[in-house]
Amino acid sequence: MAAVAFRLGQRVHAAGDPARVGTVRYLGPVDGHPGDWLGVDWDAGAGGRHDGSLAGRRYFVAAGERSASFARPTALSAGITLPDAIRNRYRVEEFTKEEQDEMYVFSSSQKRVSVELVGKNKVEEKLKNLNDLTSASVSYMGVSSIGPGDELKNLVPNLRQLDLTGNLLSQWQVCTSRD
Question: Of 12, 25, 50, 83, which has the maximum CB count within 10 A?
Fold first, then answer.
């Protein structure tokens, strides 16, 4: 059962749309529809279709009349770790020749003019060293856990401010560490 990868009460987002966040309220079959299903109660009603009932049967209780929907496990994401989100947001990659060739605008005479990213090298150099990162934002990136062990501390040892808006964390525990 593919739905086993999920659990009741787990925070999820729609695959491909980390801004559409909800909570798993049901795991199992849905009458008249083969396969595994998850009942999700979407935050702020984010496009739900019902209240946890379908065809006269109540599967779960949703927060609103149209805040819930059923989804296949493959249509949902359980999220990524915080270190992975930081790497995804702040990684710096060199552009390929093809990508560089695609960086252009059209002039008023409809001639192709290359775009130069002013300060690009300076920004890339600064972001390459995550040790220097003191403030970061991973808003709406589907963060669901802090990740294994000391990975975050080792990745961004000087991080002091972190924006976690719109992520999948359902609990937060403050820990104090004495180094």
Answer: 12
